[in-house]
Amino acid sequence: MITYIDKIGRLLTSNIQYLIRVLLMIYLSIRATVLDQHQGLRTIIGVVSAQIYFTGWQAIPLISVLALASGSITILQSSSELSLLGGSEMIGNLLVVIMMREIGPLLTALVVVARSGSAVATEVGNMRANREIEALESIGINTLSFIVFPRLIGGVISVICLCFYFVVIALIGGFFLTRIIDEMPLNFYLDSLVQALTVEDFFLFLIKTGFSGIIIFSISCYQGLAVKRSYHEVPQVTTKAVVDSIIVVTLFNMSVTVLFYLEQLMRLRGV
Amino acid sequence: MSALIKSLHFEKLTFHYEGQEPLLKNVDFEFPVGKRDAPCNVAAGRAQDKRGAASRQTQVIAIRGAQGAGGSTVMQILAGLLTPTSGSYFINGVPVENMSFEEFLPFRLRMGYGFDAGGLLSNRTLFENLVLPLNYHKICSPQEAERRVLALMERFQLIDSKDLRIAYVSASLRKMTVLIRAIIMNPEILFLDDPGIRISKEAQQMYAELLRELRNNGTLHTIFIASFEESFFSYFDYTPIYLEQKQLFTLKETAGK
Question: Pick from A222, A202, A200: which is nearest to A210 by CA?
Answer without folding.
Answer: A202
